[in-house]
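Objective 1.3, modelling of assemblies. Example input:
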Amino acid sequence: MLSFVLRKGLRAGLTVLLLATFTFFVLRTSGDPAVLLVGLEAGPEAVEAFRRRWGLDQPLWKQYAIYLQQLLSGDFGQSFVGNRPALEVVAERLPKTLWLMGVTAVVTLAIGIPLGVVAALRRDSWIDRLAIGVSVAGLSLPNFVVGVLLILLFGVALMLLPTTGSETAWHFILPVATMATGDAAVFARFARSAMLDVLNQPFMRTASAKGLDRRRAVMRHAVPNAAIPLVTVFGLYVGRIIVGAVITENVFAWPGVGSLLVLSVETRDLAVVQTIVILVGVTMVVTNITIDIAYRWLDPRTAEERTLG
Amino acid sequence: MTLLSIENLTVSFDTPHGAAHAVRGIDLAVAPGEILGLVGESGSGKSALFLATLGLAGPRARVRGSALFDGTDLVGLSDRVLSRIRGRRVSMVFQDPASSLNPVMTIGRQLDEAIRLNRQNPGRPGSAAARDLLAEVGIPDPGRRLRSYPHELSGGQNQRVMIAMMLAGNPDLLIADEPNTALDVTVQAQILDLLKRISRARGMSIVLISHDLGVVAQICDTVAVMYAGRIVESGPVMDVFDAPRHPYTAGLMASRPGTAPAGRLMPIGGVVPSPFEQPAGCAFAPRCPRRRAACTAMPPTPVAGGHWWRCFNPVEAAAAA
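Predicted structure (tokens):
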């Protein structure tokens, strides 16, 4: 168990380091923030002063060394635009995004998984066909299309729901619906196939033979076994929901980290972009480790293999 | 006196190609404490018969006829009512013990579930009841085994756990569907001994479903031979095996390794009829060396008695013996 934690920790650290490095160089070599921020009309002296002020006049390798050193001491750099710590700028926006993602995840799972389970139990019925049909539609429509369609329908045509901002609970409805429809369909699909797999296993017949009626056999024996593959899907979903949040926040002008990311890339606010990328990277790494642990907890066979291997 | 009395039972499965007839009209009786062997090749309907009777054959199964268990007809009962009979009155163990146990639950939790479901005073979970059951089926160090998962046990041990679980409700009848087919030869014999010992100790009836005549000869009191969804011959195990009268039974006996002269196997030619067909006469007629004109025209009626067969031209008793 200790070597498991150690191995995972080392790999996680390396992943984040590579990510930070990659982001650093891509951002530095893809455009000059000084010209953009100070403006060409301000004259070369002002641009040069800006470069010196932020250390952009140093050779790239030296900038990188300084950046890493700062990063290791917990300093994510200064936002050019806000002229304050980048971490502060991001942290301010984080609650809005976490709320959006949290509500979306709950809605997605609460709709998708029961729908998939029911579809599997009523295989080839109308509810099964509906679930499959909706999930194909959900997979083929990108978030930004769904978002715009919802805005046109509920915001512009019907004028029922607000389409920008995040002030009230009403504001949640359209962004959450945008993100949840497709992913709920994906979960329904995976839950359905996982359930069908489990329902055909001999131990389900055993559960009935020992005296469980159908409903209790499904709840006690099928669902826990079907949950195992769904945990993997959830890991992938965390990545999807982050991307979804970036797009959806921009479509609905939701004042979260996602809209901040796009804004910061536009203004070449390097430290803020880097901070967000590292935040996303750490989230993914933590998710993967959590899923590994959940897997070992849900499926005792995996724990055994890992210990041996 | 009978515990289970099956009359004119048919089982068919709805398929996209029409109805597949697995069981085509069976009469069978099981007495209290009796061990009955049900023999036949794969696809003869021997498993479908009991799976369907207990409501375990899935939603596509159609069951007709009657199966009186202790006065109650099991055919047509709802899943909820049947679930109270399963485990308490009639239990069933299956062919592949490793996949017949839930892989993510400990042995102890699976046993506790069976105990809580099927006993009036189940006691607390993890109590001595589960340990006693494991000890009864000969699992060493049962207290430690309760915390194990199925993948940590051998096939033979898993089958013992299955049997223990199915004994939890103290049933009157245990259906053992090829209980030792997936196991090593030495373990097979142990499981058979265990079943016989439990049957005698508890006065519990067993229906042993098998394709192996040797297995049936070893522990059964009576035997019924199935072919293409019908019983073709039945009687006390020694009578049937010493003097098989139906040509199919005789063929099965002759095709056993070690029985034919000079160590050669005597296979039965031809194949089992398709479950989608409804032959007018005896289903075995196309493969039968003793076929007559009448055999393909109408099904033979059983010749009554303790040892009976369903054939127009049976093997002579003297010749077979």
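The radius of gyration of chain B is 20 Å.
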